Amino acid sequence: MSNPRLKQSRDPTSTTLRRLTKMGDNEREREQVTVVVLGDLGRSPRMNYHALSLSEEGFEVNLVGFAGSKPQIEVLKDEHITLTYMRPSPDVFNKLPKLLAFVAKVIWQTIILFFTLLTGPRSKILLLQNPPGVPAMPVCWLYCLLSRTKLLVDWHNYGYTILALSLRKNHPLVFIYRVVERLFGKLAHGGLCVTKAMKIDLEQNWGIGKLSVLYDRPAERFHPISIEEKHNFLMKLSSTYSCFSGSSPDKTVFTERYADGRVSECEDRPALIVSSTSWTEDEDFSILFYALQDYERVRQEFPSHYPPLIVAVTGKGPLKSYYTSMMSEQQWMHVAVITPWMSAEDYPTLLASADFGVCLHYSSSGLDLPMKVVDMFGSGIPVAAIDYPALPELVHHNENGLIFKSKKELANLLQDWFRGFPRETAIKETYYDFYKSIDEFRKLKWHPCWMCNALPLFKNKKQE
Question: Is the alpha carbon torsion for 352, 70, 66, 46 positive or negative?
């Protein structure tokens, strides 16, 4: 009989939650895998999914990263996943000049990550998320060399292209970052990447092979919800945001519960749009801002043709205060914008409650895919996403989503989509195959895809 116990590490550089399981004679010993994220574990959903799949397939997982957002509940409950939190860099570093602060954080993270790996459980395989690759890639490579551990890299994007957004493309630090990614990426034993376009680029331009493509898939918690669930959630939001409140105690502007307990959607309801953003340079919120301004103008001219809009923009990031202050200066009468921070439990419900999703993610490399679109598709809602080279691997215009290239195109898409809403159904009839494609997308889950594309990498390592 297994007897899980919870033990807190006294390691001075990390707070480790270790679950020790006594295995019966008939249960085989689990092989240890370390999964490393040089970032917030709670905001690294793909690595959480890796940990869960590894656990399900008989591995013991040490998930290493920084504290911050709460990891998904399935990870916290899994007795075969250990969470190792590294100590973050001191706040005083943020007061230094930008270049000096970057160098100081790299030195700090180098020491903390290396010491955490040395004092953690011995693994035969280490899976590293990239980016960020500096200093994670050289540190993990050195640790793997010393401990004879196989290094696998999960390529989400290129760190040097992200760094170039805040610096300039020909900045020395960008050049050094690119050299580090390329060098240590070639020294790894293999890995995964999020698109075919990235796999081709890594092979042809960087000489990095032995990679498998593993597309992101929505977690089980991202799914359509019932009208009752939607009503309960919107009632919860109405206690914080007045734009959701209805004219009676058990009514929102979207839904109403009658005396017999029946819930229905209001015939004159506004439309609910959701957009998730990190409020960074690679997501230009001014595009959506312009589209909403234009929608306000059209709604004023043709009030009977277009519904009011409520737009929920979730996320945290450095540019949030800039754009929220810009929006607060507007005198919009028909468009309301809220910027909530949603918990991991509430975010999927918000998506499933929405009528439409907007993705502003513009890949710094042009080679990754937006996870937020994956989650929106999983929730069953239509999505409009800004175009870039790899996006067609996920979004097919007028087949399972809408693609725009400019702020004017987004403005036109929103006006076309919501003309006559919610009474007219012409759009839904026009895009029947569109909704059908979203349903088909939802049927393909993460773990079966992981079994086909990722598990062979770990099995091959076990057989060596």
Answer: negative
Type of residue numbered 169: K
Are 380 and 223 spatial neighbours (Cβ–Cβ below 8 Å)?
yes
- What is the amino acid identity at position 297? R
pTM of the model: 0.86
- The string of pLDDT tens digits covering residues 369-396 is 999 999 999 999 989 999 999 999 999 9
Please tell me the distance from the alpha carbon of residue 219 to that of residue 216, in angstroms, as a whole number: 9
**What number of other Cβ atoms are within 10 A of residue 88's Cβ?**
15
Cα 450 from chain centroid (whole Å): 17
Give 375-395 as a DSSP string.
HHHHTT--EEEE--TTGGGT-
Stronger pLDDT, 341 or 403, i.e. the higher one = 403
- Note the pLDDT tens digit of each residue in 294-353: 999 999 999 999 999 999 999 877 888 888 888 888 889 999 999 988 887 899 999 999
Query: What is each CA distance from 439 to 100, 217, 252, 398, 430, in whole angstroms?
Result: 49, 13, 28, 15, 16
Q: Give 106: exposed, middle or buried? Use CB within 10 Å, 0-12, 13-18, 19+.
A: middle
Contact at 8 Å (CB) between 185 and 206?
yes
User: Which are the contacts of 393, defined by CB distance < 8 A and separation ≥ 6?
Assistant: 195, 196, 197, 215, 369
Cα–Cα distances in Å, from 349 out to 57, 346, 370, 376? 29, 5, 19, 11
Query: Chain-centre distance of CA 343, in angstroms?
Result: 13
What's the rounded Cα separation, in Å, for the pair 391 and 420?
A: 29
By C-alpha distance, which of 442, 314, 445, 319 is closest to 378? 442
Between CA 20 and CA 10 the distance in angstroms is 16
Neighbours of 330 (CB within 10 A): 13
Mean pLDDT of 63-82: 93
Instruction: Give the C-alpha separation, 446 to 45, whole Å.
Output: 12
For 202-257, the DSSP string reads HHHHH---SEEE------TT-----HHHHHHHHHHHHTT-GGGB-SSTTBBSSEEE
361, 218, 343: which is closest to 278 by C-alpha? 361
Q: Cis omega (within 30 of 0) on the bond before 303?
A: no
